[in-house]
Design brief:
The protein is mainly beta. The chain has 1 helix and 10 strands. Helix content is 12%, strand content 32%. The strands form 3 sheets. It has a 4-stranded antiparallel sheet, covered by helices on one side. Strands 3-8-5-6 form a 4-stranded antiparallel sheet, with no helix packed on it. Strands 2-9 form a two-stranded antiparallel ribbon.
Length: 114
């Protein structure tokens, strides 16, 4: 499913004029190990053409994402929280992406586009 979603997103990018080759960059970290403590899902420079992060459908808590700073477990400002099963599309940027959830051992998936 994750690779299929990546192919669809790449096709969408091509349809809006981003025709250059885009490399998929695996997440640097794909699990929030300790609830309430943010992790860097994608390091700086790993999403220069965008990307995506998905909270698994089997998750029991939201996954919160911050593209400009450290994520917290409360949505607002630069923080977006997505429900289980939802996908968040990352903006093309050179900055790191921070992710957090309230529970420990919370996996998530995604890719950066370069």
């Amino acid at each position: 499913m994750s690779k299929a979603l990546a192919v669809v997103l790449l096709a969408c990018l091509a349809s809006i004029g981003i025709a250059h080759a885009i490399a998929l960059t695996p997440l640097d970290v794909a699990t929030v190990t300790t609830g309430g403590t943010a992790v860097t899902a994608l390091a700086a420079g790993h999403r220069t053409s965008g990307g995506w992060i998905q909270n698994p459908a089997a998750a029991t808590t939201p996954l919160c994402i911050n593209e400009v700073g450290t994520a917290t477990t409360t949505a607002g400002g630069n923080i977006t929280c997505i429900a289980p099963g939802q996908t968040y599309v990352l903006a093309a940027n050179s900055g790191a992406v921070s992710v957090v959830s309230t529970d420990s051992a919370h996996p998530f998936s995604g890719y950066g586009f370069q």
